[in-house]
Amino acid sequence: MKSSGELKLEAKQMLQGRWKDAVLMNLIPTVIGIAIAAIILIPLIAIIGGVAIFSPDTLDTVSNGINSNGDVSWTAQIGNQGGGILSGLLTTIFVSGMSWTFLDIYRGKRVDIHPLSDVFRAFKSPFLVGVVCIYLLSTIFIGLWSLLFLIPGIIKSYSYAQANFIYYDILEGTGQKPGYLECITASRRLMNGYKGQLFWLDLSFIGWHILAVLTCGIGYLWLNPYIYATKAAFYNNLPNEAETF
């Protein structure tokens, strides 16, 4: 396996001459995410505002997260969890499509990025069902492991990190839809001995994350493609891929 520096260098080489299209590809889900957030938050703010106007006591109760029966707290928790799962799912679908594009570029299967189509690759059949099922199954497994302690959940998240790449490879290579649990299991085996390296690879981007935050998030338009390209290079450099599948 190559070092983090070597993988990042390969990512930069992939992005050379393609930065504009890569940023545009990343911009599309960003704009969609903002629009969805606005659609959800504006009515919610209006409802909360109405509650504040007509019942200050109720507003205090909502802000505390409970009412006399505990209903508000329960509803808020369910809403937060549901919103988090939906947000994570949408992010995973978009990221999968972009990551597959960089994987194809890395392997020399294509030269150009087509932002308007590549960003929606994972929304197309039969990829969508696979990405959704793998995400939901992984989320359940990671959640169960996290019940034991936080660390096992984090470790398992790295174990399952390559499942969508594996699903894509099998489907593209054979034309057959692989089993979702099969992809998760293959990822776990593929990452045996490499979870720590992927963890350190993630840590190596901390400085860039700080700079992106300091730009009010605008820097992520460039940082995210850099990360996705690096992760694609990481996956492709994992040894014995064919044996794992």
From TrEMBL:
Stored Pfam families: DUF975 (PF06161)
Organism of derivation: Enterococcus canintestini
Residues passing through the membrane, by range: 21-54, 85-106, 127-155, 198-223
The organism's place on the tree of life at top rank: Bacteria
Keywords: Membrane, Transmembrane, Transmembrane helix
Entry protein name: Integral membrane protein
InterPro entries named among the record's database cross-references: DUF975 (IPR010380)
Lineage, opening ranks: Bacteria, Bacillati, Bacillota, Bacilli, Lactobacillales
